[in-house]
Amino acid sequence: PRHATSLSAPSPPDARNFPVDNFVAGNIEVTRPAPNRFNVLVQGGQGGWLVMHEQWYPGWRAKINGEPVQLLRADHALRALPLPPGDALVETVYEPGSLRLGLFCSFGALLLTCWLAWRGRYKRTGARSI
Asked: Global pTM?
């Protein structure tokens, strides 16, 4: 169905020539294999914009048929990306950089704590033997 959408960034050059008249959307199958994943299988479409009624946030990444694509903000809060003509498997995954940073800092703190505990135990043991 036709729907006007405003994008937060300029559309890719190959996405500007999508058919407008006699547009055929194709069949769509949506799956959510995990809370941080959202997949869409499009079969037989003519190409166009896929606007997902899911909240846009900087940590979302997208691939179409295994190739990374830019995920744009649509209508100020939703996610959108250009679909090529034909069959397409759209895979989106939420992998924020802040999560990786938090895991790295937590692991570093755990290593530091273990090292300080080991060092303190070694000093106590060494003092008794003298």
From this structure: 0.64
